[in-house]
């Protein structure tokens, strides 16, 4: 479980606003999200390969601990990694947490990097995303972009 403060959502997502919420995610659930974020389905996750998936699983278990039902960064992460190592681990864990929140709060099963698609136009603004961007799109259970 993680504790989150969620605010400034409007419309259909206003229900998410709360001064403090517990989001029910386990360590293995976080590891699954870290291993699958950015992929467009189970098939793509498996195409990542055994070694990549093993690295992400071990990295998650090495740097996150479950204490009293809550997930916490480990002492290894907090006190023994240098700054360059923390950047890489933080990025991977942050992406995994983004996927977990998308799944648990918004019912969005896959977050996909825009590199999977050519030029993308944002429907509400009509603005085009740069071709080499790091934006992530959400995809619903039927494969439709959100």
Question: What would you say this structure looks like, in words?
Answer:
With about 150 residues, the chain is of the alpha+beta class. The protein has one domain (about 1-105). It contains 5 helices and 6 strands. The protein has a two-stranded antiparallel ribbon with strand order 1-2. A two-stranded antiparallel sheet has the order 3-4. The chain has a two-stranded antiparallel ribbon with strand order 5-6. A hairpin with a 2-residue loop joins strand 3 (about 65) and strand 4. Helix 1 crosses helix 5 (about 85-105). The protein is globular, with a radius of gyration of 16 Å. The model has no long low-confidence stretch (mean pLDDT about 80).
Task: Name some characteristics of this structure.
globular; two-stranded antiparallel sheet; 6 strands; 146 residues; alpha+beta; 41% helix; single chain
Strand elements, count: 6
Strand content: 15-25%
Determine the fraction of residues in helical runs and give it as a percent range. 40-55%
Distance between the termini: 26 Å
**What does the average pLDDT come to?**
82
Q: What is the H/E string?
A: EEHHHEEHHEE
**How many discrete structural domains?**
1
The largest sheet has its strands arranged as: 1-2
Q: Biggest sheet, open or closed, and with what strands and sense? A: 2 strands, antiparallel
Class by alpha and beta content: alpha+beta
Low-confidence stretches: none
